[in-house]
Amino acid sequence: MTKKKLKHIQTDKSVIASNGKVGSAVQEKPKLQKINNKAYEKELKLLQIELVKLQEWVKHKGLRVVVVFEGRDAAGKGGAIKRIVDCLNPRVCRIAALGMPTEREKTQWYFQRYAAHLPAAGEIVLFDRSWYNRAGVERVMGFCTHEQYVEFLRSCPEFEHMLQRSGIILVKYWFSVSDEEQERRFQKRIDNPTKRWKLSPMDLESRVRWVEYSKAKDDMFAATDTTLSPWYVVEADDKKSARLNCISHLLSIIPYEDLTPDPIKLPPRQQAIDYIRPPMCMQKFVPQKY
C-alpha cells in the first residue's frame, strides 16, 4: 500500500471495521458555534408559543404523548424539560422523575411503576429518566442481575411497541455531552451552592465508569433503536442550542393545528354593593423586607 493511500485511510472520518460496517472510532465533532443570548431568547419565545399550540391540540384531540429524556449526567436534560414546561399547563403537561424503587416496587414487573405514570387522553408526560435506568445505571452499577438486564433488552421494544399500538405517541431523546463539557459542568455545580444538590455520589461514580457507561449506551441503542421507536440524539455541549433543537424537533414530529382562541375581552368588574370589608389590622401580612 502506498503512503498516499495509507494517509487517506488514516485521515478519513470513519473506520471500516472487519465486518464491513462503518465504525465511529475516529469521528470528529465539528467545532461548536454557540448561539448568543439574544438570539436564544428570541427563538425560545417563539418555540414556547408553538408548544402552547401543541398543548391545546393535544387537549382538543385527546392525544396521549410520552417524551423520554435520557443521557449522561449533566447533559442538560433537566434544562430542556424546564423550558418545555415553563409556559404549559401542569394539568396537561407533567414531569415524571422517579426516585429509587421501594422494596415493594422491586418485586413488581419492571415496567409497572413507569406504566402508572403514563398519560390519559389530553395529557403529555415528560420522563426525566425512565425505564432505561435498567440499561444504564442499573447495569453499570450492578443494581440488577445479568438475567434481568438481558430480559429488559428483550422486553423493552415490545413494551414500547405495545404503548404505540394503544395510541400513545412516544418520542425518545438522548442528550449527548462530551467528557470535557461534563467535567466543566460538574465543577460548576461544585462551586455553586444552589446547584450542588444536583451532584450525587452516583454522578461522581459515573465519572469513574465513563467507558462502561459508553458501552452500556451503545448496547442499549443496538437493542432499542427500532424503526417504530427510534432514538433521537441531541448534541448538548451547547445547552442553549440543545434546548432549541430538541423543542423544534419535538414540534416537527407531532402534527398539530393552531387552535389559538379569539382575543379575550375582560368583563367589567362588579360594582360596589352594601358590604363593608373587615379592617386590615385583622390580617397577618408578610414583613416587607425588600
**What's the β-strand tally?**
7
Instruction: Give the strand order, joined by hyphens, for the main sheet.
Output: 4-5-3-6-7
Q: What is the C-alpha radius of gyration, as a whole number of Å?
A: 24 Å
Poorly predicted regions: 1-26
Based on helices, strands and strand pairing, what is the structural class? Answer: alpha/beta
Percent helix: 40-55%
Listing every helix as H and every strand as E from the N terminus to the C terminus, the arrangement reads: HEEHEHEHHEHHEHHHEH
Number of helices: 11
Strand residues, percent: 5-15%
**What is the subunit arrangement here?**
single chain
Describe the global form: globular
Spatial gap, N to C terminus? 77 Å
Mean pLDDT: 88
Describe the main β-sheet briefly: 5 strands, parallel
Question: Can you characterise this structure?
Answer:
It is a single chain. The protein has 290 residues and is an alpha/beta fold. It has eleven helices and seven strands. It has helices at 3-11, 37-61, 77-85, 103-106, 112-115, 137-141, 146-165, 179-191, 201-208, 210-224, 239-253; strands at 15-16, 22-23, 64-71, 93-96, 123-128, 169-176, 231-235. It has a five-stranded parallel sheet, with helices on both faces. The chain has a two-stranded antiparallel ribbon with strand order 1-2. Mean pLDDT is 88; it is low at 1-26.
